Amino acid sequence: MPFVSGFKIGTEPVLRALCFGFDSGKVLVKQADGTPLIPAREDLAGLGIVPAWQHYFGDWNGSACWVVGFAPDTPAPLGFAWKGLRELFGRMEDELIWVAGRAGQLVHWHRNHCFCGRCGARTEDHPQERAKLCPACGLMNHPRVSPAIIVAVVKERQLLLAHATRFPAKFYSVLAGFVEPGETLEDCVRREVFEETGVQVRNIRYFGSQPWPFPDSLMVAFTAEHAAGDIRANPAEIADAGWFRADRLPDIPPPISIARKLIDWFCANFP
Predict the structure, then answer these.
(1) pTM of the model
(2) Sheet with 124-125, side-by-side order of all strands
(3) Domain 4-112 coded CATH 3.30.420.310
(4) In DSSP terms, which residues pair with 241 in a beta bridge?
C-alpha cells in the first residue's frame, strides 16, 4: 500500500508505528546486519533519548508514520546510526526513502518556523491542519515547498549535460533551477537553460515530477529541443557542459532521481 498522508491518527488501530527521527538533516536508522531500517516506535522505547518535537504525518503499509525531531548533536544509541538520505539510496526501498524525505522536510519546516516571521512571537502547531500559527498576530505558515524545473535538452540525438561547480568530480546531470516569483514553469525552463549554458530551447513538454527533500524542493521535469545557440557555460554555476550521445555518457545521477529518469528517457528514445 502506498503512503497516505494524514494529519491526525484516526480511531482505527494501526499495526505498528514507524519513527523517522532527524537531527541536523540526518535520519536515525537501525542497523540490522548492515541493512539500514527505519526504527519502529518500540525500538526507541527505553533508549533514554527524548524527542524535541514529534508529529504524525501519515500511514505507509499499515504503519503509522511519526516524524521525530531530536536536539542537535544527539548521539545515536548503540545499534543505531545517523544517515543522510543520499547515503540510503540503493540500500533502502525507494518509496520508504521518499517517506523519510517527507519527514525530513517537516522537521526542517518546524525548526525554521518556531517563531513568527512577522512579530517574533513563538508559534504553535495549528490544531486542525498542518501549519504553524502565531497566537499574537495570527500569521499562519504551512510547510514550505520550493518548485524547481529540471530539463533534458536534446540536439541531434545528443543530450545536454552539465557539471555544476558544486558537483563531485566527473559527475554530470541535466540542467535544473528554481522557479522565480511570477514565472511560469515553461519560462523558467527557457531562462535557466539560457542563463546556465547560453542555449535556447523549444518544444518544451512536461515529463513528470518528484519531491527532492534537500531540503524542500519539488522537481518538475520537462523535455525540450535545442532551438539556437552554442554552449557558453556560466562559470558562476557551471564548470563544464556538453552534448553527449547515449553510448558516451559520463557519471550520472542514481536511478532513484528524476534526473536519471530523464536521462534514461533520452537513452531509450535516442539510442
Answers:
(1) 0.92
(2) 124-125, 132-133, 140-141
(3) no
(4) 162
